[in-house]
Amino acid sequence: MSEASFELGTDGPRVIVTGVDGSETSLRAAAYAWGLARRSDAQLVLVQVSPLATLSTLTPGGAAAIHEAGEQVAAELREELERAAQRAAVRYEFITEQGDPYQVLARIADERKADAVVVGASAQAGHRLVGSVAVRLVRAGRWPVTVVP
After folding, report:
1. β-bridge mates for residue 120, sequence order
2. Residue 104: is its pLDDT beyond 80?
3. What is the Rg, in whole angstroms, of the alpha carbon atoms belonging to the chain?
4. Across the strands, what pairs with 17?
5. Structural contact between residues 56 and 62, judged by C-beta atoms closer than 8 angstroms
6. 28 with 77: CB under 8 angstroms?
7. What pTM was estimated for this model as a whole?
8. What are the angstrom distances between the C-alpha of 148 and each of 33, 74, 123?
9. Fewest CB within 10 angstroms: 106, 117, 133, 144, which?
């Protein structure tokens, strides 16, 4: 291999997608992804997804309450990101969407040509039966996935 074909500083991810929902594990995943992006000078894409289909959307005012809660989580995450950016420069983008968290994260990772996906481990017991977002991302097999406990 000639020296001209070697690119210094291109090892590691260039685009990292991470899911954040305000849970403790997702915040740890975001912190891990932030450090990874800082060390590798990667673009960090943080994605907050508000699920659409819940039983509370069937009640009067339920959909509005879910939307409002999602907006509040997004606002708090934006503030935290701004504080983190003041401490350590990282190129990041914050995206909020509604839908199925797996489908949204997978679509954005594909669109951005992500080199890595970082998510927090699920603490919900039901995910052992149905499969968590992390497990579904790993099974997709399109990106390296890091699951942060």
Report:
1. 148
2. yes
3. 17
4. 45, 117
5. yes
6. no
7. 0.76
8. 10, 20, 11
9. 144
